Amino acid sequence: MRLLFEIGMEENPARFLVNALNSLKLNLEKKLKEKRIKYKEVKIYGTPRRLVVLVEDLLEKQEDLDVLNMGPAKRVAYDESGEISRAGMGFAKSQGVDPKNLEIIETKKGEYIAARKFSKGIETKKILPDLLKELVCELEFPKSMKWGDKNFRFARPIQWFLAICDNELVEFEIEGIKSSLESRGHRFFGEKFEISSVDDYLKKIRENNVIIDIEERKKMIKDMINQNCTKEDEQVLVHENLLNEVANLVEYPYPIVGTFNKDFLEVPQEVLIISMEVHQRYFPILDKNGKLLPKFVVVRNGISYSEKVKLGNEKVLSARLADAKFFYQEDLKKPFEDNIEKLKTVVFQKDLGTIYSKMERVSKIADLLIEKLGYAEDKKNIKRTISLCKADLVSNMINEKEFTELQGFIGADYALKNGEKETVAKGIEEHYFPRFKGDKLPTTKEGIVTGICDRLDTLVGCLGVGVVVTGSKDPFALRRASLAIVNIILNSKLNVSLKDLVEISIEILDEAGILKKDKKDLEKEVLDFLKQRVINVFSDLGYRRDVVLAVVKTSWNNVVDTEERIKVITEEMKDSKFKNVISIIKRVGNITKSHMDTEVNEELFKEKVETELYNFVNGLTISLERKLSDKDYRGYLEVVLSSEDIINEYFNNVMVNDKNEEIKMNRLSQLKKIDVIFREMAELNLIEL
User: Fold this and answer.
1) In b/e form, how buried is each residue of 578-604, taking b as 16+ CB within 10 angstroms?
2) Residues 419 and 459 in one domain
């Protein structure tokens, strides 16, 4: 059988569509599994006006239920007289069966009671009405609404349900909205239509100018742009995120080329591009060298060209670009430096004060980082970058809330036009990098130092005044700030201690009388928060999580050093001897996990191999300490690998748990000493074989 279910509604926001379809698919698959209804595949389709799921090869009935659940042993379930005990009665009740129907099952461990459950499968068509109702009612959106006299909530008012299985209607009703075999085509270029089968729906929906496949709409947009919207030596700037959004705004895409006054090109093209992409969902047109042309592509929700649509969008864009040009020209009339004073009136956070006071703290943190990194020659430019990096927040361009996406970029542009050094201007732009996962990272010393110190003050300050980060709540994007700090340090190969940076930030906040927590407690909280981000970053880089955890357990404060340890272990794991040694390390760790003493008394040795191991370990300790001091991690592991034979010989010839308690404790101490030195580079026993 084939099941097709369509939820028809008023136009849904583009950002809701994909998540809603994925949730619909996952929930349907879950419910079919719970109901024991097998199927081949669940496909999803969607447009702004409809959510569609198609189930292929759906079984006509549930699988029969026939399970045997084991309970307690018979001797526990029944007393000596054969009467059922409380344990047996409790098991029967938990299984929903009469105690008389419990079975006795013979196993290798003896006789146990069991409850057998059997129920014959029901026809799928009888299950589907309630299942589809649940599917609709359980679908969640970031924002939902009620409409008319309905108590039911949904993203937008539902207009119709189409539900067909095996060419028959699946009947159900939700607050007066009944399922049917009727659907609707494109709002302006389609009609209502009735279907007789799934194939009939797929044929008629297309005839009514609706492309239900999101990927097909995206391909149509790209193909039509390439074929109809560019001339020779022109290119359309198509960012994937914007393409995804535009495809989810239309049911049938038709790209149209519009133009705007070339006088607007006096404004930096990034301003114009952001205005087109973010505010209007247009695709800019560039020349072959990447220079913006006074042209754009708008994707119409229609099947043909429309001059009215073209002129209307040109008019709207002109008004938007006129605002951008006005803001830009007004900003350039005043020295950019004058904006610094205005930051005294902009509150960053109620307990942390203004942006101005925040940047004063950032400047003090930077003093330490500049010293640690040996950037003394660049200190003047770095400090200038810090003083100017937030100045664009009070510019007309950003403060009017029209072009907030230009933070940093427009500040860099204004700085250059006001005679600031190029590295300072670049640092102003770069200190916001990375803005999202996978974004570019700062490359200048100005951008690197400013970006780290700005985020560090945000992280420590917010946690220090009691801002709470939960799974769904992170108002100051502290996770993102922490991830950025780690990524910047790694990318720039900075030999710096996160702990040192956190300590100085806490001291600066404490001197300002801002903190609401004990300094030691706050330090632990911040470092724990950063530590988890370090683990996430290395996992995202593709390193095995068990290796990451093994190293981070021992060393994570200097993330560049941490990565070097991870890399070396990852490479050495290819050596066949590595697994053998890890097994030995795990064995040693398990034997000594509750033993803390490492003092060894040679006079208690009974076997020759004990002395040999003792001498070997003493030499090993000196060698490993030297390797760690020199950061020769490959050499460290080679020394560890060399211990395989002697430790194996020890285990083959020595009984650790000797009857003599003193000898036993001494042997455990000898092994504990090995356990400790093997953990210096990483908790190698955490590595999975």
Assistant:
1) beebbebbebbbebbeeeeebebeeeb
2) yes
